[in-house]
């Protein structure tokens, strides 16, 4: 007896389309979050599997029916998401605040995917953080805080709506954060950005550790005048400007192509690191590591 006809046309086409979308998303030709949005359509995949098991494997005509039905379902889902996104607008600015709760040190993390971020020092306040935030068209501000062993751990995040985020990418309306942090206690600061603009005026903060990761955004950092400080900057494809006080003793390590980092003439190469004038490792200094992909880091 001949085995039943089991064409693989539907699944072959699904693999080709899925691979193409994944590749375009990886190369940056699709809006941020597009692949994650498609992944949320997993119920459509279940329907497609059911249709293929029921009629798709019986004949070529059945496979074509499965392909058409799946295409219509995906198209309808994307159209529904686009319609929902078209009605969204940026939120109004509102105040945010965080008390210290007896913390004598702080560890602050900011996850800000896209928009306009301003960060400065907080003057004359007993709070750990004050500021104003406005949500983007498809995201929500999240704030979490706990105190562990006298260290206040503050997490501020911009949580995007995965389904709608690709359809609002590139719109003029974006999230806006104006965050001010205390300068009264020592602090470790970690910031992650993906797109948009960020200005980080850290000059008066008592930082002990600073970590910055950015993808395609434009970031300007004014580093503190006090030491010791360990800092690491990673720029995948964005532009980062680091303003280092001329009086700050600095040791700079490059973990990327030297052509992607622009240094002022005051730095001299000593072995595998760049040193500022009169650098003395026995005194407090800025220990800075820069890692780039195709991004550009400019040190001033």
Distance linking N and C termini:
79 Å
Q: What's the total helix number?
A: 5
Number of strands: 19
Overall average residue pLDDT: 81
Main sheet properties: 10 strands, mixed
**H/E element string?**
HHHHEEEEEEHEEEEEEEEEEEEE
Major sheet: order of its strands?
A: 5-6-2-8-10-12-18-14-17-16
- Taken together, the total number of domains comes to 2
What structural class is derived from the secondary structure elements?
alpha/beta
Strand content: 35-45%
| Cα radius of gyration in angstroms | 25 Å
List the helices and strands and how they pair.
Elements: H1 9-26, H2 34-39, H3 42-56, H4 60-86, E1 94-99, E2 105-112, E3 116-122, E4 127-134, E5 139-148, E6 151-160, H5 165-168, E7 176-182, E8 187-193, E9 197-201, E10 207-214, E11 218-222, E12 229-235, E13 239-243, E14 250-254, E15 261-262, E16 268-270, E17 273-275, E18 286-292, E19 296-299
Parallel strand pairs: 2-6, 2-8, 3-7, 3-9, 8-10, 9-11, 10-12, 11-13, 12-18, 13-19, 14-18, 15-19
Antiparallel strand pairs: 1-4, 4-7, 5-6, 14-17, 16-17
Helix pairs in contact: 3-4
Describe this structure in words.
The protein is an alpha/beta fold and 300 residues long. The protein has two domains: 9-86; 94-299. The protein is 23% helix and 39% strand. Strands 5-6-2-8-10-12-18-14-17-16 form a ten-stranded mixed beta sheet, with no helix packed on it. The chain has a nine-stranded mixed beta sheet with strand order 1-4-7-3-9-11-13-19-15, with no helix packed on it. Strand 16 (268-270) and strand 17 form a beta hairpin. Residues 1-7 have low confidence and may be disordered.
């Amino acid at each position: 007896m001949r085995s039943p006809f089991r064409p693989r046309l539907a699944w072959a086409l699904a693999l080709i389309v899925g691979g193409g979308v994944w590749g375009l998303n990886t190369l940056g030709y699709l809006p941020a979050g597009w692949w994650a949005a498609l992944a949320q359509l997993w119920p459509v995949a279940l329907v497609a599997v059911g249709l293929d098991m029921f009629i798709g494997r019986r004949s070529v005509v059945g496979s074509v029916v499965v392909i058409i039905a799946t295409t219509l379902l995906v198209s309808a889902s994307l159209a529904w998401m686009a319609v929902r996104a078209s009605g969204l607008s940026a939120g109004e600015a509102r105040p945010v605040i965080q008390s210290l709760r007896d913390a004598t040190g702080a560890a602050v993390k900011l996850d800000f995917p896209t928009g306009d971020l301003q960060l400065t020092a907080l003057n004359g306040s007993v709070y750990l953080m004050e500021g104003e935030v406005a949500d983007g068209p498809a995201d929500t501000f999240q704030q979490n805080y706990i105190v562990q062993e006298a260290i206040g751990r503050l997490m501020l995040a911009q949580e995007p709506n995965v389904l709608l985020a690709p359809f609002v990418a590139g719109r003029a309306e974006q999230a806006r954060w104006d965050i001010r942090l205390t300068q009264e206690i020592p602090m470790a600061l970690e910031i992650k950005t993906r797109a948009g603009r960020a200005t980080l005026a850290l000059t008066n903060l008592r930082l002990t550790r600073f970590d910055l990761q950015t993808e395609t955004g434009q970031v300007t950092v004014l580093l503190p005048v006090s030491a010791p400080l360990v800092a690491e900057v990673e720029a995948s494809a964005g532009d980062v400007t680091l303003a280092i006080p001329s009086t700050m003793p600095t040791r700079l390590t490059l973990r990327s192509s030297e052509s992607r980092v622009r240094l002022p003439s005051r730095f001299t190469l000593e072995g595998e690191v760049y040193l500022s004038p009169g650098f003395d490792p026995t005194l407090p200094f800025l220990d800075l590591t820069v890692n780039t992909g195709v991004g550009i880091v400019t040190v001033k």
